[in-house]
Amino acid sequence: MRKVVGVDLFCGAGGITLGMRRVGIDVRLGVDRDIRFQKTYEVNNPKSRFLSVDISKLTGREILELIDIKNNEEFILAACAPCQPFSAHNKKNVFRGYHDDRGNLLSEVSRIIEELKRKPDFVFVENVPGLGDMRYPVFEQFEDVLYRLQYTCVSDTVDAARYGVPQHRKRFILMGKKGITHLSFPDTTHGPNKEQYETVGNYLRGLPPIKAGGKSPAVPNHSCRNLSELNLKRIRAIPKDGGSRISFSKELVLKCHTDESAGHKDVYGRMSWDRPAPTITTRCICLSNGRFGHPTQDRAISVREAARLQTFPDNYIFYGTSLDSQAAQIGNAVPVKLAEVFIRHLIQS
Q1: Residue 159 lies in a domain
Q2: What is the distance between the alpha carbons of residues 333 and 160, in angstroms, rounded to a whole number?
Q3: Pairing of strands 74-79, 122-127
């Protein structure tokens, strides 16, 4: 394969970086303002430099100096800007006139692309589905820049489960490439009329059992949060393998859930062995924040189990001052397999 050099903007813990590396890309630079990602990123990606900087202070010239790209090398720029400004939750605020400066981060990416004297051969952007909504001028402006620079682009919202990731996770993806006239998404591989979805059982079975608040010395990050006595009673009352809080007796029901229509039904639910997981979020190890209960053990999923559902290998270690900080790194990441599938297709198209 020809030599391709990669830069990962908003790299976080390195999901896209690892996906690019699996394709054979030499990822020379990961950029993220949050210094808390640095150890996780650098330890797991030792050949990639982590740069902690506000992207508004970063120039195209600095990037080229740092990656030292040669004339015979190709170049991919990946960016997964913080998604909150484009989330479904934040749409209400946008329509009320609320301004979120984080939405300008995509504009900073287009600025950098314009500044780069050596333009990327490939551009890969991942974000929440709302980014593709035409109500957001920032996305239209970003696309306009790419078209003006003669990129052929394709974008859409996809479910990661359709590409072999063991969770239903809808994400918006844009790919851009120079030097071609047509670009398409990779064909889906899983789902209706395809291979069966990857499941929680395929990825979590075989890990050592642990109790709430416990950890395994045999598997890195296989640690989970403790539960109060009341929450232990609650999870014991939830049927194994996919049960939910509708099985709670009256004394176990939370006050905020006394109204039949109140709250998300997945809260205090267990995952199912034979189905994909729900979207892994930054709060994915908290029983009260979604269907994050283990299918059969009386606890929420561990940090390692969350990482597996994001398709990180067990030798990818997450560092942080708490389990919650490690889980946030995982929930913020792009699933490694999703990045790998799309970037391989982009490079080979």
Answers
A1: yes
A2: 13
A3: parallel
Structural domain includes residue 52: yes
Neighbour tally for 202: CB within 10 Å: 15
201 within some domain? no
Q: Burial level of 329, CB count in 10 A (0-12/13-18/19+)?
A: buried
Residue 99: inside a domain: yes
For residues 243 and 233, give the distance between their C-alpha atoms in angstroms, rounded to a whole number.
14
- Full-model pTM: 0.91
11, 83, 224, 284: which one is catalytic? 83
Q: Is 83 a catalytic residue?
A: yes
Nearest one of 147, 138, 222, 217 to 172, comparing CA atoms: 138
The H-or-E segment that residue 340 falls in is: helix 336-348
Number of structural domains found in the chain: 1
pLDDT tens digits, 22-45:
999 999 999 999 999 999 999 999
Cα–Cα nearest to 327, from 168, 205, 221, 232 = 221
Write out pLDDT tens, residues 105-152: 999 999 999 999 999 999 999 998 877 765 678 888 999 999 999 999
The CATH code of the domain that includes 129 is 3.40.50.150
Domain membership of residue 40 as a residue range: 4-193+334-348
Residue 316's Cβ-count burial label (10 Å; 0-12, 13-18, 19+) is: buried
- How far does the chain reach from its first CA to its final CA, in angstroms? 13
| CB contact at 8 A, 45 and 66 | no
Whose CA is closest to 345, among 120, 119, 118, 173? 173
| Helix pair 60-67, 105-115: axis angle to 10 deg | 70
